[in-house]
Amino acid sequence: MTSDTNYVGALGDCWPVQEISRTAVAPLERLKILLQVQNPHAIKYNGTIQGLKYIYRTEGFRGLFKGNGTNCARIVPNSAVKFFSYEEASKGILWLYRQQPGNEDAELTPLLRLGAGACAGIIAMSATYPMDLVRGRLTVQTDKSPSQYRGIAHALRTVLREEGPRALYKGWLPSVIGVVPYVGLNFAVYESLKDWLVKSRPFGLVEDTELSVTTKLACGAAAGTVGQTVAYPLDVIRRRMQMVGWKDAASVVTADGKSSLEYTGMVDAFRKTVRHEGFGALYKGLVPNSVKVVPSIAIAFVSYEVVKDLLGVEMRISD
């Protein structure tokens, strides 16, 4: 085992792979957010292909990658905190579970992994949430926005000055709630699929206790698909709450300057979204998100496993 410091630092070394994967799908990520928050009375983006064409036509090639710099900047601290927290939470939860009579030799179950993944996701998300809010706003603003955030630092200063410190955590509650199905299911499905493949060896896929990169990729893709689908409505509400009080995004206001994104809280956001736009509005942007999230999460998990192999860290927490 490596020390905690080296372990966190090593996980951060995955950032080149993650930045490449996130940059590759950045246009889809920006379109997803634009679809999530656009004013229903001023529709500009009607689908994946049309939306990408519209962004390219109105903002050029660089417009497809707006907000990607902030997204990449979040990768190192978010990934390091998340995976380190997952390992530590798993050890702690398993230790507590084994203290109960009859569970001395127990292994991590999918439910325990869900709890560890949820803890890790909440810690990592909370630590980097202000950057996520800024990323959302940089992504949504267009060349026609009345005023412009000039970058990460300028956006943070502007939000603090004009809206106060609490504004940096707008949408935090649905994010926390969404962590349980999203990050929790990601880890639970991924680890459980790996264990099942190793122990049952279905269809001759596994010939020894080591899984190939391709198999891990498939497990990560399956985990990402399940997690993002279940938690997606909460992601839509989070993005909409992040835009509340911000009038300078051309994509969320009408020509007369009115915004449809005025909510007093998470429940109010859910209620107004469904009442005014229908239940389907909770899944706006799901198509481009589905296209981009599977390779992104799968590559992240493979990078995680490769680093653990290089460090000589245990392959599965259940061992």
From TrEMBL:
Subcellular location as annotated: Mitochondrion inner membrane
Pfam families in UniProt: Mito_carr
This protein's UniProt keywords: Membrane, Mitochondrion, Mitochondrion inner membrane, Repeat, Transmembrane, Transmembrane helix, Transport
Membrane topology, record value: Multi-pass membrane protein
CC terms in the record's Gene Ontology section: mitochondrial inner membrane
GO process annotations (BP): transmembrane transport
Keyword Oxidoreductase found: no
Placement of Solcar repeats on the sequence: 5-92, 108-196, 211-310
Main location: mitochondrion
Keyword Metal-binding belongs to the record: no
Family of the protein in this entry: Belongs to the mitochondrial carrier (TC 2.A.29) family.
Protein's UniProt name: Adenine nucleotide transporter 1
